[in-house]
Design brief:
Layout: H1 2-21, E1 27-29, H2 32-56, H3 58-63, H4 68-83, E2 87-89, H5 92-116
């Protein structure tokens, strides 16, 4: 479980780094340390605040067939600079497109993680063969 959390955190750090490298988005950070802390804040916000926001906006989420979740992700990304001063989001439109790109990046890497994981199965050895076969 700790490894999964660490992997998710590293994927978020990579995603945040990539969206800060896309200059037209208007999202930047002062140092790599700020990206690490922004990823921590993002994990905490997605764990605690996002379910509450989804619950309050459930009719809108259902009415838009889940597209309103992008707005919720943008709101969370827009709030991160209040907790991490070295992380900058220059407007809600920047937060919206940043959340869209971040969702695509984390979905891509999380999907790759799921595809590469191997599940172990308990397979019983084959039953011993019996020469007494009755054919009908």
């Amino acid at each position: 479980m700790i490894l999964r959390l660490l992997r998710h955190w590293l994927i978020l750090v990579l995603g945040l780094f990539l969206i800060t490298e896309i200059k037209p988005l208007g999202i930047s950070s002062d140092s790599s340390k700020d990206l690490f802390w922004a990823a921590v804040v993002l994990i905490i916000a997605n764990t605690i605040i996002k379910p509450i926001l989804i619950l309050f906006t459930l009719p809108l989420v259902l009415l838009t067939l889940g597209l309103f979740l992008l707005i919720i992700n943008a709101v969370i990304l827009y709030w991160i600079p209040y907790f991490v001063p070295g992380f900058h989001v220059h407007g809600f439109i920047s937060a919206f497109f940043g959340a869209l790109v971040l969702s695509l990046i984390t979905g891509l890497f999380s999907g790759y993680e799921r595809r590469t994981s191997v599940r172990r199965m308990n397979v019983a050895p084959p039953a011993p063969r019996s020469d007494k076969v009755i054919d009908i």
